[in-house]
Amino acid sequence: MSAFREMLESDISIFMDIDEFGIETNINGEFFTVVMDEEEMVEGIERPGIYMNKVAFYIRTNDIPKPYRGERMIFDEEDYYVDSVVEHDGLYRVVLEVLDS
Prior knowledge:
Thrombin, subunit H; ATP-binding sugar transporter Gifsy-2; mainly beta
């Protein structure tokens, strides 16, 4: 393994650490460490006839298979659909969305 890759994996481990930024969460019935992206989170925006809730988080690519847009995902016992997924340097950035009318 290259020195750069080892350094990157070390940085990811620190980033995902429960004592740093990571939190343990339930995804589809299994527990994983994720880092929430607070800037993307939208809770309870209401438009006439529509309620929207968005959640965004980072998770290691080796923890789960790559989610796909439109896939149903249970996140902390809430039912969501994958809005977008970006893979970068060993992490997925996943944005989940629920729309109720």
